[in-house]
Amino acid sequence: MSQLSFSSFDATLLVRDAHGCYVLATAEQILDAARQAIDQKMQRGASFSSPAAVGEYLRTKLAGLDCEVFSVLFLDTQHRLIEYVEMFRGTIDSASVHPREVVKEALRLNAAAVILSHNHPSGRPDPSEADKVLTLRLKSALALVDVRALDHVIVAGSVTTSLAEHGLI
Description:
This protein is an alpha+beta fold and 169 residues long. It has a domain at 46-162: Cytidine Deaminase, domain 2 (3-Layer(aba) Sandwich), CATH 3.40.140. It has helices at residues 27-41, 51-62, 99-108, 129-143, and strands spanning 14-16, 22-24, 69-75, 81-89, 113-119, 148-156, 159-162. The strands form 2 sheets. A 5-stranded mixed β-sheet has the order 4-3-5-6-7, with helices on both faces. Strands 1-2 form a two-stranded antiparallel sheet. Helix 3 packs across helix 4. The longest helix is centred in the N-terminal third of the chain and has 15 residues, at 27-41. The radius of gyration is 17 Å and the shape is globular. It starts with 13 loop residues before the first strand and ends in a 7-residue tail after the last strand.
């Protein structure tokens, strides 16, 4: 949580405890509420109008998590959201990702395209060599079933890095 500062919000954000009394919200409660709000805002059929909108959505979903989480945005032919799925959870610096499982989920959801994403709890947004290799493996596996990998976005606190914008996908 070191990348995010909630000190300016502490006095104004309150939640109810088990007894119905209002108490100051913790950073984790604030992040959980933000994740719920983004789920309501971006429901099935919502269109991502720009790379910035994708980054904002993924920052809300993945920022502040204390372990690596690999997620996939499954999209239809018009690049509208079918479903956001957290596919794999790892440790503080890695997550095992299985291309077979990503392909199975894409087929199950009848997705035409995907946006891959994972977080870096370290706060460093640069893609590792392993991230680049994994992206190419996933892109190749998905292409076999006619699913396009549009991007792989790394979330590091409040910063995102798009592998597509860097010419790596």
